[in-house]
Amino acid sequence: MTTAQPHSYAAHAKATLALGLPLIGSHLAQMMLHVTDTVMLGWYGVTELASVVLGASMFFIVFILGSGFAQAVMPMVAQALGRGEEVQVRRDTRMGLWLSILFGVLCYPVFWWSEALLLALGQKPDVSLLAQDYMRIAGLGMIPALLVMTLKSYLSALERTQVVLWITLAAVGLNVLINWMLIFGNWGAPELGVRGAAIASVLVQLASFLGLALYAHLLPALRRFLLFQRFWRPDWQAFGQVFRLGWPIGLTGLAEGSLFQASALMMGWIGTMELAAHGIALEVTALAFMVHMGLSNAATIRIGRAAGRNDARHLRDAAKVAMGLSFLFGLSMVALFLTLPAAIVALFLDLNDPQAPAIIAFGTLLLALSALFQMVDAAQVMALGFLRGIHDTRVPMWLASISYWMVGIPVSYVLAFPLGLGGAGLWLGLTVGLTVAAVLLMARFWRRAPLAA
Predict the structure, then answer these.
(1) Residue 177 DSSP class
(2) What is the pLDDT of residues 171-181, one digit of tens each?
């Protein structure tokens, strides 16, 4: 593990990228699991694509809520290592795994009865039924998906980010192969459509968990943590600590995720074609967001280590450098979305489909609008990463909730419907909510940073 404590900005950048690049790669690969589902179902049919946009969005919202416990493991392990408390590393990670299993069991009824929920939210009956078919199967993958997230947090805090990247990349390849078999009925397999995509997702999540667990258990350098030794024994003190740090992280993610989920639901009120274009544009912007997320995770680890050592200078400089790297990447995405939007949207469609031109035209507009919120979206996720590094999660939860639920969603609705801007209004509302969050969260961190270590 890295023990150097660099103080020059160049050294900070090098250390951040050494941690962050594999995390960025793993986040992009994780997103590619969803992108491959979107692309392959886009080839299969527009209604099927729209149903999985809804189904995957709902799965993601529930996953984000539950992943707060997994994400809490990262700063907790980082600070424990900074203090030299290796036993605490095992205690925190194990209870993160416990909480992930418990959440996965409790949330499954949401997926089983999802059709009624989607119909109540104004979605079309044919799309809602297909989405339920998808989620009843995909929901079985919630537990392994959360366990994977917990082990990724544990290994990342230990600066074992390369294995996280390689296992996630292998998962993408496996997902493509199983999708090809089960969505379209190739190689003698049954043609299952959306159900095939759901089965593929569950199998890939199980395989990913097995790979990460074997690595964490068998690697000689990590055996001293005894992660799975007497796994069945409760540790209520660590359970409570992970829970208290994790539930605000989950609700913060829910607040942001619900902003985008609400936009998907409202886009569904406008039309199936618009919803399909929205899903594609959202996948593309989410891919860019994963880069910022990886840098944010790297910052959480480095700030957590600094906080554990009571090194205030290192803490603040690590945050400045991570923010600068994120800003530079955001500028490149703005340029890309403004220059090649149509070509990007076309990658997700069968161009022989008669609805393809309309989807490309609307998706082009949405990608151009997404350029407006690239920088503020980057700023808010970086600020959250900084704050988690110093174990500050409750106030950020309230700031995010206000920004997204009390500002972003209402503004999106007003712009889209009363003011008649339609889908463009929905995306302008996203920009407003993200801007408010970025300002409030960054202000919170820089007020607290001098006192954090």
Answers:
(1) H
(2) 888 988 998 89
Structure confidence by residue, pLDDT tens digits, 286-298: 888 888 999 999 9
Residue 357 corresponds to which tokens in the numbers above?
């031109």
Q: How sure is the predictor about 283, in pLDDT bands with cuts at 50, 70 and 90?
A: confident
Listed residue (380, 372, 387) closest to 401, CA to CA: 380
Structural domain boundaries in the chain:
9-451
pLDDT in tens, 298-332: 999 999 888 888 888 888 888 999 999 999 998 99
Tokens of 419: 């003011």
* Alpha helical stretches, state H, 340-421: 341-346, 356-370, 374-389, 394-401, 409-416
Q: What one-character DSSP code corresponds to residue 8?
A: S
pLDDT attached to residue 150: 94
Residues contacting residue 420 through CB under 8 Å, at least 6 positions apart: none
Is residue 116 classed exposed, middle or buried when 0-12, 13-18 and 19+ CB atoms within 10 A define those classes? exposed
Which residues, at least 6 apart from 165, have a Cβ–Cβ distance to it below 8 Å? 22, 23, 25, 26, 29
Distance in angstroms (rounded) separating the CA atoms of residues 453 and 449: 8
Task: Report how far residue 168's alpha carbon sits from residue 172's, in angstroms, rounded to the nearest whole number.
Answer: 6
User: Are residues 12 and 317 in contact, defined by beta-carbon separation less than 8 angstroms?
Assistant: yes
pTM: 0.80
**By three-state DSSP, how is residue 229 classified?**
coil
| Distant-in-sequence, close-in-space partners of 259: CB < 8 Å, separation ≥ 6 | 404, 405, 408, 409, 412, 430, 433, 434
- How far the first Cα of the chain sits from its last, in Å, is 22
- Within 13 Å, how many C-alpha atoms sit on residue 332's CB side? 9
